Amino acid sequence: MRRLVLLSLLGVSACVQDPPEEPVQQERPLCPDLVVRDASADPSALAHRATARMDLPPGAPAAELSSETPAASGAQPVIVRFRSQAGSVRSAALARAREDKLEALGGRVKYHWPALDTLALSLTPEAQARLAADPDVLSVSPDRVVRALDLGTGARVLPLATTPSTQGSTSEYTYGVKMTQASDVWDPDGEGVLKPGAPTGAGIRVCVIDSGMDVNHPELRAAYVAGKDFIDGDDLPEDKDKDGNWGGGHGTHVAGTIVAQLGLHGAVNPNDATLSPQGVVGVAPGAELYVARVLDTSGGGRTSDVMAAVTWCNETVHAHIASLSLGAPDKNAAEEAIFNKALSDGMLSFAASGNGGETATESSRSYPAAYDSVIAVGAVDSKREHPRFSQGGPHLALVAPGVSVYSTYPRGHAPYANLHAGDTFYNSSVFDFVPFESYEGTLVDCGLGGSLRSCAENASATCEGFVAYVDRGGDIRFTDKVKNVRSQGARAVIVGNHNPEDDATLSFTLGSPATWPPVTAIPTTLVPTFKSLASAGAKVRVGIQGADYSTSTGTSMATPHAAGVAALVWSANPALTAAQVREVLEKTALHLDDPAAPAPGRNNLFGHGLVQAKKAVDAARSLPSR
């Protein structure tokens, strides 16, 4: 700072500088080795999201597409359709000639469907232009990106069963199982037992085309028969990247909605009293499960892999049903031909209608759901009401539960907080992005955690480690509170909530991956207890462990409910055709009025209505085969 001073004794004025101010001393961390660093600064830091991943809109670019990475030469993944040669017989020679033509242009064939005169490969833009001018070529289209259509979400591993179970608990019946009447079909007496002779999906092959799954999940292993990984090119369709890191669990969640086993269960989050300790049961627990992995760990994939998976499910597995909780916003003629062929061969396909309902126009569609040969499934919530995200339209056939659906998840990867003081367990909630770790130490009250000395008055707050209790509030972000107490030696953090309205969920985040310690939140009702424990210098144990189940939302979650009901219908009358099964589902669905235009019959908001298993099974039993 400079100040003008009148030097009256000299009779002159001058501009002089005050003595320099003492520099402000910045507080330094008491424990520099524990300072939180972001993940980019420490790639070895292991962090996770505690909530289900929010998928990008259909058609958004995928972060990882391991099955089709464009070459450095600029080659792009495309699908080429040749014209059918009238009067000619499709032969190996013709197929080879077409492959040779494409390879001469620098392409390497990925898939070839001779019966449909279609191939998938990568070509440069120049080669694509030359090919498009070839009179023998019908079309050259992008091998477009497809995406999963959900809106997002310390485990002990139990012995894995390899045989189905028929007895469990009615607590395993999710609201979706009950709302679709599935449990009324196989447990009409409500005893938690599969009734002998009742349709359970037995003998029906269901193919889940998705992100792969945890094939050793205790709820799924008994139903799982075989799989194909179109991302990695092997027969183990696990939702993992090349380094063994799990993806978002999308396919595991979808598969559980269809075939989770009654009476078999994994580790359940003990903080939520509404969750059954016995796990869940699927809509069709007797069905045979086949899995085709076409989405990578980021939830993205290519049209060609979807086409190859549909072909595998249809021609190799001879599946009755395919469930696809994925889509893209534009039509692809080659893909449509694959689904048309599958239906003509007798396989019934279900696909998610899409999650862009709030921004969708009248012409918005998600494919493959919008193809005539596919059953488009939208979502309803637990009150049978329309969630704003669920896309509708003239192509919408059915709706099913798709909001806060509880189902299976890769073992040990759905985080929950395990908080103990002595032998007493306390309900708490895990923060986003914290590691699967446990720590036991002295509880120290650090107030609002607003500075790098907030815990210092307590002799137990040393770099050797302690558990910090901090109060929510004070206009201090959670990230800053945790960073402050971490740098003073905290090896775990408990945040006390101050808003009773948030007690039911305690859904808090630390914003991004970093070297966070375990962090958990307690409701307002427990704050006095933990302040008292801190005053007494009590020891507490904070752990972040993993459950085998999670909750997710989207038309992705609705689709397997409808596919599972179809399996029940087909197992009640195996002689039915795919067309008959669809007809039964649509005719027996529970009509739901569009509030904007109430009227009988189908509407663009709910299609024919909510799938109803009991009504559909009763109707199927009375139908003759065609």
Give the topology.
Elements: E1 2-7, E2 12-17, E3 76-82, H1 92-104, E4 108-113, E5 118-123, H2 125-132, E6 137-142, E7 145-148, H3 175-179, H4 182-186, E8 205-210, E9 224-229, H5 250-259, E10 288-293, E11 300-302, H6 303-316, E12 321-324, E13 326-327, H7 333-345, E14 348-352, E15 374-380, E16 396-401, E17 405-408, E18 414-421, E19 424-426, E20 429-430, E21 438-445, E22 466-471, H8 478-486, E23 490-496, E24 519-522, H9 527-535, E25 539-547, E26 549-552, H10 555-572, H11 578-588, H12 613-621
Parallel strand pairs: 8-10, 8-12, 9-10, 12-14, 14-15, 15-16, 21-22, 22-23, 23-24
Antiparallel strand pairs: 1-2, 3-5, 3-6, 4-5, 7-11, 7-13, 17-26, 18-19, 18-25, 20-24, 21-25
